Amino acid sequence: MPRQRTPTYLYFVLIISLAFLGSQLLMSLLMKTSDILDEIDIFRSLTAGGHSDQPLDTGAGDKHHTGAGDKHQFDDADKHCSPGHFQLNNDGICHPMLTCKDIQDNVNAIQHIGGGAVKQVYLARWKKYKVILSNLSHPSFTDDFLYGAEMLQQFQPNPFVTRLLGLCLSVPAIVTEYHSFGSLENINSILKEKDEDNVVTRFKLCLDYVKIINFLHSSPTGTHVMCDSNDLTKTLSQFLVTSDLHLVINDLDALPVVDSSKASLIKCGHREIVGDFVAPEQLWPYSGVEFNDAQMPGYDEKTDIWKIPAVVDYLLGEDVHGDVVRFNLFKLHQKCSSKDPTLRPTAAEVLKGYLDVQQTLKL
């Protein structure tokens, strides 16, 4: 039986259909390619610092552009007043450091705003100013309280440390500057309130954080380790956000000193530390053996380096441009996350890496 021939018009229908489908597929591919090329252009403008003299438009605007030499708003105030004096709200008035009598007679607590085992913290008023009053929680923590007070004294004046306004060792009590934004825990709501939620501002906060770690590791009083940092929330609570969106460290009562020259290591407390936020060397190393503080090995400042990637990842937020910053920091953060602490960079090396990224991305 002879085979039936396919009608010619069906070939034309098939050819036209294939051509239509092919054109649709081609258009789809072209549109996808265009989107990819746009993303590559954005990526290049961020990562190839030498390709353009203009910084990426991140929504921050010129007013938010910050360089490595940015100053806190109170730098000039610190220079304006002589040692033992302070200025508040940049009002041009230098006040002498508050004494025990000044604190007892003129600093009035308004509201309890926080506290812990070592101290209770109050929003207070002194003259026309809002200040922070910290009182000892319990006599058993007197040494910790006084250590924090000593650190505050020794670090003054410093743009990375909350400003000390008064001190009374006999009560004991500490008066410090009030920062209305509160702690770094609130950073997401702060940036939205200030309409500053952009990668430039967020990276500036990351840079401040690294600068503070570098300061603690190279301070005149020795290499200090941030022990109140066993989880992300606790770590963020150690920093206050200033009105010009910089950071200052606020809680200084758990900053033990490492003396590398004497192979003197530290331990953050006498209880077992758990969790994946802390450095591996802070964990009890003997599986199947009950924790014993006397057998727990000591460690050094490299525990702070381990935590930098996690803190910075949080601070960068969910902005798409934050992913490009993360990409540029990837190799440095890999080194920070080395299980062997001796392979991690120093804080100074981390800071240099961050400043290089800032310059590359024109942040």
Structure summarized in a few sentences:
The chain has helices spanning 8-47, 75-80, 100-106, 142-154, 187-193, 199-217, 232-236, 302-316, 320-336, 347-361; strands spanning 85-86, 95-96, 107-115, 119-126, 129-136, 164-168, 173-177, 223-224, 239-241, 247-249, 257-258. The protein is of the alpha+beta class. The radius of gyration is 28 Å and the shape is globular.
Keywords:
single chain; 363 residues; 10 helices; 40% helix; globular
| Separation of the first and last Cα atoms | 80 Å
Strand order of the biggest β-sheet: 3-4-5-7-6
Secondary-structure class: alpha+beta
| Sequence of secondary-structure elements | HHEEHEEEHEEHHEHEEEHHH
The helix tally amounts to 10
Mean pLDDT: 85
In terms of per-residue confidence, which ranges show pLDDT below 50 for 5 or more consecutive residues? 32-70
The percentage helix is 25-40%
- Which sheet architecture does the biggest sheet show? 5 strands, antiparallel
Instruction: Count the E strands.
Output: 11
Provide the gyration radius in Å. 28 Å
Beta-strand share of residues: 5-15%
Overall 3D form: globular
